[in-house]
Design brief:
The chain has 89 residues and is mainly α. It has 4 helices and no strands. It has 2 domains: 46 residues, Arc Repressor Mutant (Orthogonal Bundle); 31 residues, no CATH class.
């Protein structure tokens, strides 16, 4: 749909610059900004869901609870605790 709006000159200049930096059109930039404002997030149709990668098939090491930030911080802050858990000897 075509419409006419009044936009501050400085804001329009910044928007045109940002669109050029992103390699997109001013229309697409404004549509994205409206989506964020109206829906609180970007339209993520083209993005694949995030997947956690594990190696050696073992997943998390025993004692790691990703839901307990304080415990994780303690494991990482303890002198030698991290290195002793990750050593391959």
């Amino acid at each position: 749909m075509r419409t006419t709006i009044n936009v501050d000159d400085g804001l329009l200049t910044e928007a045109k610059r940002r669109a050029a930096e992103r390699g997109t059109t001013l229309t697409a930039l404004i549509e994205d900004a409206l989506r964020v404002e109206l829906h609180g997030r970007r339209d993520e149709v083209d993005e694949e869901p995030f997947q956690t990668l594990t190696y050696r098939g073992g997943g998390l090491m025993p004692g790691f609870d990703l839901d307990d930030n304080a415990a994780l911080r303690g494991l990482l802050d303890d002198d030698g605790a991290w290195s002793s858990r990750t050593s391959t000897s």
